[in-house]
Write a structure and sequence with these properties.
Keywords: Acyltransferase, Lipid A biosynthesis, Lipid biosynthesis, Lipid metabolism, Repeat, Transferase. The chain is of the alpha/beta class. The chain folds into two domains: about 90 residues, 3-Layer(aba) Sandwich (Udp-n-acetylmuramoylalanyl-d-glutamate--2,6- Diaminopimelate Ligase, Chain: A, domain 1), CATH 3.40.1390; about 210 residues, 3 Solenoid (UDP N-Acetylglucosamine Acyltransferase, domain 1), CATH 2.160.10.10. Helices cover about 15% and strands about 30% of the residues.
Length: about 350
């Protein structure tokens, strides 16, 4: 898809310096720009590349004044080049994903309710009594179980699985390989020492504006609901167990595992590979550094690191001693020898 400098300037409310009719069809880094590509300059350390780039269009701040002759790139001047480029990426992504219609070779139950302007990709299965909102995009090879509800403007990428009874809000993004509503890890030992499965009859509720990364799994509740609140952002390969609740606008990085029935507050930031045991309460605005292990309730505004996790400040102070431990032990041994020698 081609765009002219005039069209791009219109989207960004920018001013053109150069050829308004020059066209671009791809995006590039400024140092890797080629003819027909669009790039941007926001970081001053890349300024030298604007004089050599082959990109046809470069987005720059209005304050930018070239020191040398430009290499045939047309400038679009805006208030903030980085934000404008991000806006353009969002616009481009919307255009790219704006598919409409139902592909051949799909299986859609007659009892399903489909909204307007939706897209359903090939080899997708949509079960009984499913309700799909307006402008929803469901890409190929997706499974949507019975009685699922998907809100307006949500995107479900290829290979995602949404089990029965789950509810997905508006403006959500569910990436490839995500599994929503699989059984929670519920087993009870019997008299013979074997384990019997505890039926998991709850569901998963995902509120509006939630992003779920590729291969992330969110288990259905044993009873009631596993709940992901509005605005939560989940990275790839996260495990969220049954009956967990995650508060509004919390963000969680990859490979974190949260055990059953833990409640996480609002606006938390949780790093990668964090392990959180079950039945805990974690407050609002908590920050947990990567690879920490959480085994206790956490109050609002705490910052934690380590396994088991300590206060972030205490951990950093202790780390000074951790890394110098061999030297400290040697000094103690030397001191002990001196004391013993004087006796």
């Amino acid at each position: 898809m081609n765009f002219t400098a005039k069209q791009i300037a219109g989207i960004l409310e920018g001013d053109i310096v150069g050829d308004p009719d020059v066209e671009v069809s791809k995006l590039s880094k400024i140092e890797e720009g080629t003819k027909g590509s669009l790039t941007f300059l926001a970081n001053p350390k890349y300024t030298s590349y604007i004089y050599t780039t082959e990109a046809s269009i470069t987005i720059v701040n209005k304050s930018f004044i070239p020191d040398n002759t430009l290499n045939n790139t047309t400038l679009i001047k805006v208030e903030d080049a980085y934000k404008s480029f991000s806006k353009l990426l969002e616009y481009y992504n919307q255009v790219k994903l704006n598919k409409v219609g139902i592909d051949n070779v799909t299986s859609i139950s007659d009892s399903a309710t489909l909204g307007e302007n939706i897209y359903v990709g090939a080899f997708t299965y949509i079960g009984d009594n499913v309700v799909i909102g307006n402008n929803v995009k469901i890409f190929p090879n997706t499974y949507i179980g019975d009685n699922v509800v998907i809100g307006d403007n949500t995107i479900v990428f290829s290979g995602a699985k949404i089990y029965s009874e789950c509810t997905i809000g508006n403006y959500c993004v569910i990436n490839s390989g995500a599994i929503i509503g699989a059984d929670g890890f519920g087993f009870a030992p019997n008299e013979s020492g074997e384990y019997s499965k505890v039926p998991q009859i709850g569901n998963v509720i995902i509120e509006d504006y939630v992003d779920i990364g590729a291969a992330t799994t969110i288990d259905r509740a044993t009873l009631g609901s596993t709940i992901i609140r509005k605005g939560v952002k989940l990275d790839n390969q996260i495990q969220i167990a049954h009956n967990v609740e995650i508060g509004k606008n919390t963000v969680i990085a990859a490979q974190t595992g949260i055990a059953g029935s833990t409640k996480i507050g609002e606006n938390c930031q949780i790093g990668g590979q964090v392990g959180i045991v079950g039945h805990l309460t974690i407050g609002n605005n908590v920050k947990i550094q990567a690879q920490s292990g959480i085994g206790r309730n956490i109050k609002d505004n705490e910052v934690l690191q380590g396994s088991p996790a300590l206060s972030y400040g205490d951990y950093n102070k202790s780390y000074v001693y951790f890394k110098n431990l061999p030297k400290i032990v040697k000094n103690l041994n030397d001191l002990e020898k001196k004391v013993n020698g004087n006796n």
